[in-house]
Design a protein that fits this description.
By secondary structure, this protein is mostly helical. The chain is 78% helix and 0% strand.
């Protein structure tokens, strides 16, 4: 295995870079809560609320696509520094927004900043790690994502009835965190892997990481199969996860006979379950049993929606569904997607691929969200059949592709001078994942 110089403080890098996920979740939940407040304060109508919410969601998707490519072209450090500045500008606009137009502008800036930050930050973490801790460091971002939701929810529970000042505090929380993250990131040098790849490319050294840098390489051998598999895996399973997160309360209240309070009581214990699952994922992801855990998680995720198909929707089946989704998702959803993505592409394509995967997943979720209420009117059981099909298809594709890519990491072979040297490695069977 070729020696690679690494950052001396990988956990510090993982924490500071991984705060992209904290800001992402805090921005989504904080903006949602603040819109309720701003609707009354600024006199927004329903159409304007919808446009503002859609602006954030779509901007995150666009930001991930653009930011991922910029991170491969110009380096990790300048991009993840610029994104924090962009988020700070967005927060200032939202705190002092006098009108609907400024709210939308702030939402777009906030979405572009958070979206662009995600793929570059994940690449930074992967390139600061070793094979012994890469999965754990990437898994930390999942934990930070849920912590962002919890902290933002706690703040909202205190300031939610404070009117415009409450919305300003929610946005201010994002701004303070972004400022602290910016200061922390100033202590992180450019990725050694990226710098080495850039220098090799400039010098004409034909290593894998220097040669494979064009977007078109993602749809060529040997990267097209893992790329398309990861796109399908994340987009399809994210359709299910996003629907549950965005419409879960609406579904169980409207069609399951629950009250809003009961729905909240069901959701509350799922947070510690998810946290425990993410911690357990971090424990096993760098070991020989991670694919076994993926398979178990995949079965549990499929059962999470199938239980409603078989037993109907009520408070009990909804709670069981949420519990199974929290457990299965820890091992067979976004966490393992991040690990596989970082391992499957060379340095100058890594954040491009990650950004594209995240972007397509977010665009797909936004499209389904737009028609979800209409689909539910055709029948809850039929809708949950559709969600089950999404899970089966996405998880099945991931299983079919990555069971053949066991213990394969481009980080270990991308320094080879023969660009075709990874062709055999990418399909090498037999080892444990």
């Amino acid at each position: 295995m070729p020696a690679r110089p690494l950052h001396a403080r990988p956990w510090w890098v993982a924490t500071v870079a991984g705060m992209a996920s904290y800001i992402d979740s805090a921005a989504i939940t904080g903006f949602s809560t603040s819109l309720v407040i701003l609707r009354a304060e600024l006199g927004l109508d329903e159409w304007q609320v919808g446009v503002a919410a859609a602006s954030l969601t779509l901007s995150i998707a666009v930001g991930a696509l653009i930011g991922g490519r910029l991170g491969d072209r110009f380096g990790r450090r300048p991009v993840f520094t610029a994104t924090m500045i962009l988020i700070l500008a967005a927060v200032l606009a939202l705190i002092f927004a006098p009108s609907f137009g400024v709210v939308v502008a702030g939402a777009i800036l906030l979405g572009l900043g958070t979206g662009a930050d995600l793929p570059v930050s994940l690449a930074t973490i992967a390139e600061a790690a070793t094979d012994a801790n890469r999965g754990r460091l990437l898994g930390l971002s999942n934990l930070l994502w849920i912590i962002g939701i919890v902290v933002n929810t706690l703040i909202a529970s205190v300031v939610g009835d404070w009117g415009h000042r409450g919305a300003q505090i929610l946005f201010g929380h994002i701004g303070v965190v972004a400022l602290l993250v910016l200061l922390g990131r100033l202590t992180i040098p450019e990725s050694v892997s990226w710098t080495t790849a850039r220098d090799e490319r400039r010098s004409g050294v034909p290593t894998v990481r220097a040669d494979r840098a064009r977007i078109v390489d993602l749809i060529r051998t040997p990267y097209v199969i893992p790329f398309l598999a990861l796109v399908a895996f994340y987009a399809l399973t994210n359709l299910v996860a996003n629907t549950s997160g965005q419409f879960g309360t609406y579904i169980v209240v409207t069609y399951g006979g629950a009250t809003v309070g009961q729905a909240a009581l069901i959701a509350l214990p799922m947070i510690p379950v998810a946290v425990f699952g993410y911690l357990w994922f971090m424990k096993i992801v760098d070991g020989p049993r991670r694919f076994l855990y993926f398979q178990i998680g995949a079965v549990v995720m499929i059962l999470s929606k199938l239980v409603v198909v078989l037993a109907g929707l009520n408070i009990v089946t909804y709670a069981i569904s949420a519990l199974l989704a929290a457990v299965g998702g820890a091992f067979a959803f976004e966490g393992i997607m991040k690990v596989w993505t970082q391992e499957s592409f060379p340095t100058l394509l890594r954040s491009t691929a990650q950004g594209a995967i995240i972007s397509i997943g977010r665009f797909s979720a936004a499209a389904l969200a737009a028609v979800t209420p209409l689909l539910l009117q055709t029948g809850v059981t039929a809708f949950y059949v559709l969600l089950t099909v999404f899970n089966v298809a996405g998880l099945g594709i991931a299983w079919a592709v990555f069971r053949r890519r066991r213990n394969v990491s481009l980080l270990d072979v991308e320094s080879r001078t023969d660009p075709e040297a990874t062709s055999s490695a990418t399909v090498a069977p037999g080892a444990s994942s």
